[in-house]
Write a structure and sequence with these properties.
heterodimer, A: alpha+beta, three-stranded antiparallel sheet, 3 strands, 44% helix, 20% strand, B: alpha/beta, seven-stranded mixed sheet, four-stranded antiparallel sheet, 13 helices, 37% helix
Chain lengths: 125, 401
Amino acid sequence: MSLDMYAEEILDHYRNPRNFGKLERPDARHRELNPLCGDEYEFQMKFSDGAVKEIKFSGDGCAISMASASMLTEFSKGKKISDLKRLAPDDVIKLLGISVSPARIKCALLPLSILKVCLDKKSDV
Amino acid sequence: MTLNVEKIRKDFPILGRKINGRPLVFLDSASTSQKPRQVIDAVRGFYENSNANVHRSVYKISSEATDMYEGAREKTRRFIGADGYHIIFTKNCTEAINLVARGWADRNLRKGDSVLSSVMEHHSNIVPWQRLRDKGVSMDFLDINDEGKLMVGSLKKSTRLVSLTHISNVLGTINNARELCRISHENGSMFMLDGAQSVPHMKINLKEIGADFMAFSGHKMLGPTGVGVLAVKKEIADQMDPLLFGSDMIKEVTLEKTTFAEPPIKFETGTPNISGVVGLSAAMDYLSKVGMENVEKHENVLTKHAIEKLGDVDGMKLYGPRKARSGIVSFNLKGAHSHDIATVLDEFGIAVRSGHHCTQPLMRRLGTTSMARASFYLYNTKGEIDALVDGLQKSKDVLKL
């Protein structure tokens, strides 16, 4: 049943998102909007030695996208850029620990797409 | 006569569907309406008995198809009281608005002119006008008050066109079209009415309103998808260009030049959506038989019930006017996103829309990014609204609100 999506941990990350806020002078930032539903987030990052040193996100959206952003920022902190670039949609679903219904996959994966653009922007520098 | 909702529901095959073992409670008619058997049968009947291209051939079934298509045009004219107007079939309401933006405004507006719209508009009544900025035509927007009603001030001399929705697809606000048209004309501005949310739900007399243009869509009024309508005053049609060029819309073609057919055919380039128009024709028959006054009355009862019941739910924020509104009720539950509410409701077979409803400027104006929306039609019941309220209580449990 698709309501299993709203597990304790998901709702906790939704209500108390980790790494929520903004960085001073980030090395990379990217904002994206899901035009279908209006979910909107910005990721900001600082890098050092080929790894993500600091990461924050801000914005607004549903429980699934918010929890996904929150968990993804937690996961990314301290990780190598090259490793993060290899993250696949399945990895994010695994991270969320729930089965996401087809109608809500886009919500779950919006933060990953923002993260990836941010990492690519780092490569531009 | 009142409306017999149980009898009406039997005409809509989809309303017999079960979702997760529960009856489908369809509360998203502002997005698209469901179709009665009469409409589905009309489309099938056309393909089974009369399918041929229109305006082209001399044989029997082709003249039948042409009669059905042109008969639907006359029926549409009567349905919206558009004596003195051309009825142009488009593919949807959005295309109808674009036909005015590209076909009329692009040709007739100059640098320094402006178009007036409002913050409550659907993107379809904002984006087509924004494209005129390239030629120096600016846009102004009427604001709304706290109740969600339009605030109309004095119009600028540069305002050449006023384009407003009749009914907000989010707030349910019913704008006074006749008065807005009068103010526009007094200022020397043309007036366009977006009737997407009004034509399906109330008796319209376009001639009385006096709008120069009115756009609406067939699929929101029991018709098939793929058909929209632009009604335009006959004298204005001559100042308009078609959106597309090619077949059907011509009088004479040589290798050097083309003379165009007279309106409305001039604006219906290529083979039109004949079966869709036949379906829309059956939809108008259905609505006329029920009576638009009865549809409106029924929806008023449902809306009043919905506002009362939803207003009793803890943490509920309802948007739009309390009274004198259409059957569209948008809301948010404190601490929950509309998508999550809609996902839980779906589990119980209840279909509501969530998100920004193609009105991002309005969402921003109201300080939110999304809302849930329940919208009603002639086939909805009070019991379905009660099911929605129950579903919202369950949503609160699931989302631990």
